[in-house]
Amino acid sequence: MSQPHKRSRNLHNTNTQRDMKLKSKYKNLLLITFLFITAAVPLRPVHAQATDPEGFHILKKGSSMKFFRYRPGAPVIISGHRGGREKGYPENSLEGFRNVLRQMPAFFEIDPRLTRDSVIVLMHDATLDRTTTAKGNLNDYTYEQLRDVRLRDFAGNPTAFSIPTLEEVIVWSRGRTVVNLDRKDVPPEMIVDLVKRLRASGHVMLTVHNGAQAKYYHENLPKAMLSAFVRTMKEYENIASSGVPWKKMIAYVGPAITSENAELVRLLHSRGVRCMISVAPTHDRLQEREERRKGYLQELASNPDIIETDLPLEVWNVMKEK
Q1: Contact (Cβ atoms closer than 8 angstroms) between residue 161 and residue 95
Q2: What letter would DSSP give residue 136?
Q3: Are residues 156 and 34 part of one domain?
Q4: Closest to 68 (Cα-Cα) out of 213, 200, 223
Q5: Distance CA 288, CA 290 (A)
Q6: Which domain covers residue 251, as residue numbers?
Q7: What global pTM score does this model have?
Q8: Do 113 and 220 share a structural domain?
Q9: CB atoms within 10 A of CB 212
Q10: CA–CA dist 124, 203 (Å, integer)
Q11: Residue 213 maps to which CATH number?
Q12: Mean pLDDT per 10-residue section of the chain, whose length is 322 residues
């Protein structure tokens, strides 16, 4: 073989080997990049247990309207009333919310109130006596004075947990759950300003009692969900007159679905609205666990879309059993 041909073949072999090495490096680089991206951005499907140590995440970022849209046969959603009432975990506490989400999917109805210096904290009562180690009116205290106050659980036992601010809870809940803000003594404009500042419309829900309240929040927070009181046809017509799209709402229809409100529930379903009942003032108050269980099963038989409860873990276990 002539020398030029030999050199040409050697050069071709060298180029081929170099190309193969480059392709191998390129494939390895692609694999490493893919593994890095998938590790950095975990997928969190609705109602699936995430890798977060706090457990369940109920929705993806910014998808609360889609999540709460009524669909026939969809699973019942549980709302923890004031977060929940578990031994050792106070109502309206971050630790209480975390305790529930470690064990089940849920969203939470919570109670914003103002301190003397206009910090929004979570507290159902206007006074501190029942749920904390302090006494007197909440709005007589500054937030700084409340820092050393500790929360009590439902049995009155002091805990190591402190009163959270609404901002802390909204920040924590992002990507995990939805918080439904009940109406207490906080001016609506303060709620709007906070939700806007935190860019939290996708995971904050606002309780409204009439069409005027619904319209105000819709105009100022167009992407936020509303939890509307729609227990009668008169309340339905009042909310409807606000012009707020039904796709932005869930409807609280009372403590149960009965023959008296069944037609109203069908009407709301036709508008794509999930209907919520609350067992907090009824079955949750029964002393015996078995009696509560029978009550929960009774309400589940009427096919509510959402159940609000002081005892979310008990209701969840009954749902799994059913």
Answers
A1: yes
A2: S
A3: no
A4: 223
A5: 6
A6: 64-321
A7: 0.82
A8: yes
A9: 12
A10: 21
A11: 3.20.20.190
A12: 48 50 46 36 36 64 82 96 95 97 96 98 98 98 97 96 98 96 98 98 97 98 97 98 97 98 98 98 97 98 98 97 80
